[in-house]
Amino acid sequence: MPLDHLVLKKLDEMERLLSEKSYRKWLTLKQVCDYTGLSESTIRRMARDGRLVPNRKTGRLLFKIQDVENFFSSE
After folding, report:
1. Which residues partner with 25 through β-bridges?
2. What does the DSSP assignment read for 5-71?
3. Mean pLDDT value across residues 21-48
4. Which of 37, 47, 46 is nearest to 14 (CA)?
5. Residues 27, 62: contact at Cβ < 8 Å?
6. pLDDT for the residue 14
7. 18 has pLDDT over 80
């Protein structure tokens, strides 16, 4: 698969996630991975270290969209 096709596919995925933002305040661990391109273990480590704060009330790692955007835009 050509590189430009992969880039366009990734941009489409990011656009889809951003367009859903107005309907949803929280992202699952998988959605954060898709949005950032980082692995689950990296996101879990960031949550464990307190660099990215999840809500654990549901028993799942859920992250506020705004927190994820703020964290990754500041790097």
Report:
1. none
2. HHHHHHHHHHHHHHHGGGG-SEEEHHHHHHHH---HHHHHHHHHTTSSPPB-TTSS-EEEHHHHHHH
3. 88
4. 37
5. yes
6. 78
7. no
Q: Which two tokens stand for residue 16?
A: 């889809």
What is the residue-averaged pLDDT of the chain? 85
* Cα 53 to chain centroid, rounded: 12
User: What pTM was estimated for this model as a whole?
Assistant: 0.64
Please report the sign of the dihedral spanned by the C-alpha atoms of residue 56, residue 75, residue 23, residue 39.
negative
Closest alpha carbon to 61 in 74, 75, 48:
48
Contact 54, 61 (CB under 8 A): yes
Beta partners for residue 28, in sequence order? 62
